[in-house]
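pipeline/complex-builder :: batch 7 item 3
reading input block
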Amino acid sequence: MEIENVIEVQNLTKIYRDFWGRKKVRALNSLSLNVKKGEIFGLLGPNGSGKTTTMKLLLGLLFPTEGEIKILGKPADDVKKNERIGYLPEESYLYRFLNAEETLDFYGRLFNIPAKLRKERADKLIKRVGVQGARKRQLKEYSKGMTRRIGLAQALINEPDLVLLDEPTSGLDPIVTRDMKDMILKLRDEGKTVVMCSHLLADVQDVCDRIAILYSGELKELGKVDELLKEQDETVLRTSKLDQNVIDQVKAVLEKNNVELINASQPTATLEELFLKTVEQSKARPGQRFVPENEQAESKESSTNGSSKK
Amino acid sequence: MTFDITDFILKDGVKHWLWVFGSVCGALLLASLLLSYVVTGMKGPGKVIKTILGGVSDLYALSLKRVFAIASLTIKEVIRKKTLVVFIVFAVLFMFGGWFLTGSTGARGDLEVKNFISFALTTTSWLILPVSLLMSCWGIPEDIKARSIHTVVTKPARRLEIVIGRILGYVVVGTGVLIIMGFAGNIWVHRQVQKSEEAQKALFCRVPLYGDMSFFDSEGKQSEGIHVGDVWDYRRYIKGATQSTALWEFEKVTSDILVNDKLKIEARFEAFRTHKGQMKEGLLCQVFLENPVTRKRVKLPVFHINEFTQNIIRINRKLKHYDEKEKKYVELDLIDDMVFDNDINKKENILRVGVRCIDPGQYIGMAQADMFIRYPDRSFDVGYSKAIVGIWLMMVLIVSMGVSASCFLKGPVATLLTFSFLLVGQGGFRQFLNEFVDKQVLGGGPVESIIRIVTHYNQVKELEEGATKMVAEVIDSGFFYFLRIAHQIIPDFSSFKMTPFVVNGFDVSWGSALAPSIAITIAYVIPCVLIGYFSLKSRELETK
Ligand SMILES: Nc1ncnc2c1ncn2[C@@H]1O[C@H](COP(=O)(O)OP(=O)(O)OP(=O)(O)O)[C@@H](O)[C@H]1O
Ligand SMILES: [Mg+2]
């Protein structure tokens, strides 16, 4: 069975012009791609590669210089498509004089959601993105991460079928990044289609089903993440810790079979994993504090209640 | 002060509006079709038509709920960004204004009242209008600059709803402030006049009924009235002790107009003396009522006119009249016997009032607005509130123009554009434009004028025939054509000035002030919304 395309883009080109109509930048060059229903699609690329431009074109915020866009079966400049779309802009462009509740209420009203339902959804979303403590504070007092979260909540107020997230994890701390990724995965589980763009490779790798890599406005790579990342001619073995003796034996066996040993060392965790672990542990034991080793001796002498490294 | 007492005729106004609006729309459509064809080829015109059809469907899909959402966002924005702090200036002005105003005109209480009213109303409009201009011109550009508008247009909000919502929001804020300021001003005026009894008495609104006027010369033929060589050709004169008459016909005179069974006529005369005569007393004047149908003419007692101030003539409903035929006094009823209908021009309930000068060799001068019947007086607050309504209408107009301009211009430029529109729509400039368009101004158009300046050529003399004159005429006629269009498009704000009515102790006239102002407001709000909508729709919401 053919899976329905939520987004179809054909030969999309965008040239930014200045006030006088002179060409400034070719931000996007003949981009063609499809996004299927129910997948998480990642747009990847370095700064200035045209990710945000693509998003804005999809939403009808910019007009294409050339090419065709079909989004949810409608052209990009059709306002009706917005009923089923949620959009988190690159930076949370919200009204800074509103508080969290008012923000969600305002956007809810734009969808003509009845007052009672609006309130329910706003409550749920505020909890879901974790800004309950600040729900009555104006957004101008928010930190970047908090603004980001309320930005996401705003994008989900209409329970959209298609969610466009422009760098959803920028400005977020690793825990919330993790949360955000979980939320994105959950959105997919709810049957929604997600298009996100990012230059944080780890994020994309963790959540995306398919990715497109853009480089200065051109599509360089497109496909399923695990297929793109699979190294076809390597095998990785993972064992409990080996001593040098055993390693030498393994080497001998491998050499006998004409296999090259590329690397044999203890694996390191990623910084992300380490950070996450540390934060989790300090949550479990709040009083604990890290003390460098040369200070440990002194602190033991001077005070009896000094904390120590675990 | 003179009043324009010509009534506004709605049907003609609408016709004129439809004509201008239609032709401007048509011209714009044609221009955009052509332009789009030139720029983008065959695809262009199709796109233009699609945009217009999109506009129709957006109008159809317009949701008031979304409009209100955006309006309330606008209101919150204005309040929370503390734009309204400016109005504290207003309060301060009011507190100190009284010190400077009292005593400045001497003891005449009724003149002081004029100052108070004019101060209150002028301050109100001078504060509310610039602030609403600024508010409305900066909202959308700021929204675009901060890109917060991106989160709105990616919701099902139509850009039409954004434009209307913004206008509505600013109007609501302005209305709120205006109500507060109006009340404050009103209370202030009332407090100020409490100091003198004279002033308190002068605080009311007269409701005039104006009539048509014509002059008849000493032979009884209709004439233009006598011109006595005044520079100001406003009043014309009648000659004393002759048949020379000024005749007014007031329409719609019914018993409703009587106060305590008396008809109250107010008149203002100017005297022109060819000899000194009785200098201590005013010229003698006679007023009579006439019914041409029954051929009855009732003469009222002769009186001395007061120059430069009002003459009040009170006429009892029961009139004593000496009947020449029956040779005895009969009693006539002012309404039943003297008021008549004119079937020829379908006018009803006409009262005819004539004025003659009795003093031989002297002249009395008057103009149409100089004599009017007074309806029962209204309270000062009525006229004052109407003047506030006038300011409100002006504010609505400014807000719509500001929002509309800000849809395609940045804040400062939009402010400038709206401001120049305002300036150009004011009386003085408009009059100049009128004369210019009618080619009453000497020296011709800009090119011709430049030629005259450079060659020191006299303004009155025709330019010499030749190529230069031809070129000048061609360019100038293009310029005049442009001006004539501008003349049609630029609003005429003179009818919005309702303060003078109240200041001079009149109720604000419906026909010559309120009705045309309302009509003008509506006539401009509609194209403003359209311009705003199409500009917002056809642009990318990025700052350039
Ligand atoms: N409004 C604009 N006017 C002119 N050029 C623009 C505009 N917006 C973006 N560009 C240009 O278009 C190109 C692509 O920009 P875009 O914002 O799409 O990149 P991006 O992939 O989102 O980058 P980042 O990772 O930094 O967000 C850049 O060269 C940028 O300078
Ligand atoms: Mg970007």
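note: Chain B has 16 helices and 17 strands.
queue -> next item
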